[in-house]
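Hi U.,

Before I forget, here's the chain from the pilot set. I'm dumping it here mostly so it's searchable later in email.
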Amino acid sequence: MRNKRKGLPNLKDNIHTILHGDELEKRNLQRTFFFMADTPDFMKKLGLIGDYFSIRYGVISRHSKKDADHALEEKSWTDLCKIIKEPFAIARYKEGYRLFTQVKVNGLFVVVGVNVNTPGKGLAVNSVVTAFGYRGNPVNEQFIYVTKKLTPEQAALLERLNSSQYPPDRGPER
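Structure:
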């Protein structure tokens, strides 16, 4: 089924074939972009200016066998399509964004890497470039949004991320 507004096939309708289809079915989807969800207005104000989230077949197929952290099941992908609009945190990362979601894989929160692309004719799309279970390695991430309703588990993950804000001789006070 195609998303009427975007003209793209819907990821929820195709994820089973992407993950479990035969070679011919997969080959027919190889260069396809899939619609995931519309972009909420609050995200557009933060810089994710694309009208919707999309993901390319190759992103899913390339990452699905990469390692345990990238091994999202069909249900996880379906859940991401629903809740990508409601992350508990958003960070700027390099040239793109990381959306911290409620979905888990192997006990880890799934983080979705997103780049804003402009494929032409003034169209901006939030292109998903990866999705993986996040271990919270301290990196240079600039948080631009954190929900006020963090669970203790979510807060602990974000606290580890911000460990780089402390001088090397002193860690965060507990």
